[in-house]
Specification:
MetI-like fold; mainly alpha
């Protein structure tokens, strides 16, 4: 992909070689200078970052409630919510779009982000992790007079750093690479994400090198997110545990 993006459109090597002799960066310059690409990148950043923050907050609170709080119907509610995992994502696309259209969410940021916030997999992971935390921690916090919000902020979240880093990385990758929902909910090119925008370039008879250059640029945040997450994994593992 990188080789073709750097190869001049008119370059034909005999014999063929893996790397072109004459590297041409015009495709990357065209991609980085394009207003559409900047807009699509902004949309992808907003879609991914806001979704990560919202999913982590909601999943951690729900996981804490399902793991450590006692209330009527807790188990039935949890397993009913978890049953959403067994429903294929594509089956819910049309009903979700109809609901969002009636609410006026078509071609808007909130319409793009809202349907993905109720993430059953994220709630399940957070619940399983928090369930393994010692009950003595929460009993001690209660004796010290800590309320629910203080307990959640000072005990649950710090101990959940490893799973939050892992989950945040996966959620970011899911949304950054998402194609079908942004394609359905975004009517105008101004609301397209990078995946949808790059796919549309081939229909506009844009040179293949430009399309692949855009794909290479779209991969950069993925590698960056992975690098940041790797650091968070190590820090979280080092800080996790109970000292006597």
């Amino acid at each position: 992909m990188v080789v073709i993006a750097l190869r001049p459109e008119t370059a034909i090597d005999f014999p063929s070689s893996l790397l072109p002799w004459n590297l041409d960066t015009s495709a990357f310059r065209e991609v980085l200078a394009g207003q559409d690409m900047l807009r699509w990148t902004l949309n992808s950043v907003v879609y991914s970052v806001v979704s990560v923050v919202a999913v982590l907050v909601m999943a951690s609170m729900a996981g804490y409630a399902f793991a450590k709080k006692r209330f009527p119907g807790r188990e039935a509610m949890f397993w009913s919510f978890l049953a959403m995992v067994m429903v294929p994502y594509h089956v819910t696309l049309i009903p979700t779009f109809i609901v969002m259209a009636k609410l006026g969410g078509v071609d808007t940021y909130w319409g793009l982000i809202l349907p993905s916030l109720a993430n059953a997999q994220a709630v399940f992971l957070m619940r399983q992790f928090i369930k393994g935390l010692p009950d003595e921690l929460f009993e001690a916090a209660k004796i010290d007079g800590a309320g629910e919000w203080r307990t959640f902020a000072t005990i649950v979240l710090p101990l959940c750093k490893p799973v939050l880093a892992t989950l945040g990385t996966f959620v970011f990758l899911w949304h950054w690479n998402d194609f079908l929902w942004p394609l359905i909910i975004g009517k105008s090119a101004d609301m397209w994400t990078l995946t949808v925008g790059i796919a549309s370039l081939r229909q506009q008879q844009v040179p293949l090198s430009v399309v692949l250059a855009g794909s290479v640029v779209a991969l950069v945040p993925i590698f960056a997110a992975y690098a940041v997450a790797q650091r968070s994994f190590q820090e979280g593992v080092a800080q996790t545990g109970i000292k006597g």
